[in-house]
Design a protein that fits this description.
The structure holds two protein chains of two kinds.
Chain A lengths: L2 E10 L2 E11 L4 E5 L6 H9 L6 E6 L2 E2 L10 E4 L11 H11 L4 H14 L15 H13 L5 E5 L7 H18 L2 E6 L2 H7 L2 E6 L2 E6 L1 H6 L4 H6 L4 E10 L4 E4 L7 E3 L10 E6 L5 E4 L16 E11 L3 E8 L4 E7 L14 E5 L6 E3 L2
Parallel strand pairs in A: 3-8, 3-9, 6-7, 7-8
Antiparallel strand pairs in A: 1-2, 1-4, 4-5, 9-10, 11-12, 11-14, 12-13, 14-20, 15-19, 16-17, 16-19, 17-18
Chain B lengths: L18 H24 L16 H7 L2 H34 L5 H8 L1 H4 L2 H15 L13 H23 L4 H9 L4 H29 L3 H6 L7 H11 L3 H32 L3
Classes of the chains: A alpha+beta, B mainly alpha.
């Protein structure tokens, strides 16, 4: 592995910003540190850059212990949140700055600057001053300036947060493309889960200084490790309940929130009668008018995974419509449905009585 | 849209168009500049008496150029101003950076004390300097020029450098720390990062601070008066001693020269500063 955090803790006075984090990042990954603001993700990144020193633990890059190594002697470079493009230098001078410090001979320096500017599509802007550039262009300067040093790791601190929505979408794809082209390991900090899911090959989700889960975007969404992860990534309906059946190939949870049990097609390692949480994602819930037949649940337990409710509100978002459905017992369930046809949108008006049901592989059983 | 010949409607914020305000501005201008204008005018007056205009002449300036005592006072003033400016900028910038950047014991006290020379009445500073150089640290007499100006230069540095500190600190407040971190990240050592990134940012403040220090030193009378010896007379002190006999057009000419230098310095500084700020205004 390229980067290893070993039991890293960072305290600012009595505040624990990073709490005993151990994490490995492989070479060539596009790794994302994700979490709400104040979760310690930026501190972790800054420790990797050498801008903060861990209170405890070790950080290794390519097997070399980095504690005590100043930022200017680390094989990493960073794209700062404010881009930090030097205002008194033009674009080419900004990109050449790091090479100049390294005393790269002039012909090579100029060639590398030209390559880096071409990579970020700023070749025609080489002699512009930063105050003549847009926010997106300034970010490209920061990116070229960091990549031109050929770091082992490129660090990105909220790289897209200052851009407007359209540009953000374009840059998302472009950053991922650049990462594939140059093959440098990227470590990106973001609070935006869409950004992390769309770009990263792996994500670490953090909360209050601790690692919650390290997984691929797909696993983070479909197989969250705990309630925090399930709730932070995407939208989810969470029900507290008791494990009533726990066989090797199926399990069932009874919950006061629903009048029918929840059936899953796998065993849960917890003992029967254990308190558990069950999550069901809105898009995995099917909705049919209550005038129709009651849908049947799984063969092993036909009464399970079905409930009856009334649509309270709906939000039409173009591609999908979000519904809030109240069950007879008063529980609110979020359901989303794709708008597959152009006519009759939103498909179901407020006040409609509906059946909600889901497949046995939809519920996520969470022990913590 | 507006029909021809119709008077343009004045907007709610077009204060400059109101006659009452124009009159007021004219009054202020007169009040501010009439004394200075008359000073300059009578330096060209072809008469020993200053109150009546007798004709135009450059004689008084010619006389200035041949007055050795005045020339030596003028050289002293420029030398002291140059020394004081150099030390004030270095000291002032360093204390501004220290106050902005670091936490250290006694910081609050230092912060409060540093502006003291700005608010303490000049006469008190003058007396304090007199006592200081009289008893605690007597400046050796009969040193060769320009070492004999040391006492005055030290006094000038004392009251000038806090102004530089104030100006530089104000500029530092708008510095983005990520700039410095970016320089470090790109390979610069601590000092190199300060030199490459922080210094260009504060340069406009250094220029205006230097300008302040230079003009403060050049035209200081009170504090200099208490620290000057018989052989270390400065330009303002010399003018004062000339006035004690009588106000001649020669005094007018000397004052005009001093004023011209100050104005020229200010214009130069503003020009340098303007170019610098325009370049560093990008976020």
């Amino acid at each position: 592995m390229l980067i290893r955090f070993e039991n890293v803790t960072k305290r600012f006075g009595s505040f624990i910003a990073v709490d005993d984090v151990s994490l490995d990042i492989e070479a060539g990954e596009f790794f994302s540190l994700l979490g709400p603001s104040g979760c310690g993700k930026t501190t972790l990144l800054r420790m990797l850059a050498g801008l903060e020193t861990p209170t405890e633990g070790r950080i290794l890059i390519d097997g070399v212990d980095m504690v005590g190594v100043p930022p200017n002697r680390r094989p990493v470079n960073m794209v700062f949140q404010s881009y930090a493009v030097f205002p008194h230098m033009n674009v080419a001078q900004n990109v050449a700055y790091g090479l100049k410090i390294d005393r790269v001979p002039r012909p090579e320096r100029e060639a590398r600057v030209a390559d880096a500017l071409a990579l970020v599509k700023l070749s025609e802007f080489a002699h512009r001053r930063p105050d003549q550039l847009s926010g997106g262009q300034r970010q490209r300067v920061a990116l070229a300036r960091a990549l031109v040093k050929r770091p082992k790791v490129l660090l990105l601190d909220e790289p897209l947060s200052a851009l407007d929505a359209k540009l953000r979408d374009a840059m998302r794809g472009e950053l991922a493309q650049i990462q594939r082209d140059v093959g440098v390991t990227f470590v990106m900090v973001t609070h935006d889960q869409d950004e992390a899911l769309a770009m990263a090959s792996r994500c670490a989700l953090m909360n209050r200084g601790t690692l919650q889960q390290v997984a691929t975007p797909g696993d983070l969404y479909e197989y969250p490790a705990n309630r925090f992860v399930a709730d932070f990534i995407g939208t989810i309906n969470l029900f507290e309940g008791t494990l009533s059946v726990d066989a090797p190939d199926h399990a069932a949870v009874t919950t006061p929130a629903l009048d029918a049990p929840i059936h899953v097609d796998h065993g849960v390692t917890g003992a029967t009668d254990a308190k558990v949480w069950v999550g069901v994602r809105p898009e995995k819930i099917a909705m049919t008018p209550a005038s129709g037949l009651r849908p049947t649940g799984p063969a092993a337990m036909p009464q399970a995974n079905v409930t009856h409710g009334t649509i309270m509100t709906s939000a039409y978002l173009g591609a999908v419509t979000f519904y809030d459905v109240a069950t007879t017992g008063g529980t609110m369930i979020k359901v989303s449905a794709p708008n597959g046809t152009r006519s009759a949108n939103p498909a179901l008006p407020t006040g409609t009585a509906v059946w909600l049901h889901w497949a046995p592989d939809a519920p996520i059983v969470l022990l913590g | 849209m507006a029909p021809f010949g119709k008077k343009r409607e004045s907007g709610p914020l077009d204060y400059a168009g109101r006659w009452s305000l124009r009159l007021w501005v004219a009054g202020v201008m007169l009040f501010l500049y009439l004394p200075l204008a008359s000073l300059i005018l009578f330096s060209f007056n072809d008469s020993r008496r200053t109150i009546r205009w007798e004709g135009f002449t450059f004689d008084w300036y010619g006389k200035l150029a041949n007055d050795d005592a005045l020339i030596s006072a003028f050289t002293n003033s420029l030398t002291i101003a140059a020394i004081s400016t150099l030390f004030s900028v270095v000291l002032g910038a360093m204390s501004a950076i220290a106050l902005w950047r670091f936490r250290f014991p006694g910081k609050g006290l230092f912060d409060g004390m540093i502006t003291l020379p700005i608010v303490v009445p000049e006469i008190c500073m003058g007396v304090a300097m007199l006592v200081f150089f009289g008893t605690i640290m007597p400046w050796p007499r009969d040193l060769v020029w320009p070492l004999d100006l040391g006492a005055i230069a030290i006094a000038h540095i004392t009251f000038s450098f806090p102004f530089v500190t104030v100006v530089v600190r104000a500029r530092l407040a708008s510095f983005n720390r990520e700039m410095e971190e970016a320089a470090r990240d790109l390979g610069a050592g601590e000092l190199r990062a300060l030199w490459d990134v922080l210094l260009p940012h504060v340069r406009p403040a250094l220029i205006s601070g230097a300008l302040l220090a230079f003009t403060l030193s050049l035209d200081d009378f009170v504090i200099t008066f208490f620290t000057a010896g018989p052989n270390t007379v400065t330009f303002p002190v010399k003018i004062y001693s000339m006035v004690r006999f009588s106000v001649t057009p020669e005094v007018n000419a000397a004052s005009t020269v001093l004023m011209a230098i100050t104005v020229a310095m200010t214009l130069l500084g503003m020009k340098l500063q303007g170019a610098d700020i325009a370049r560093s205004e990008a976020p």
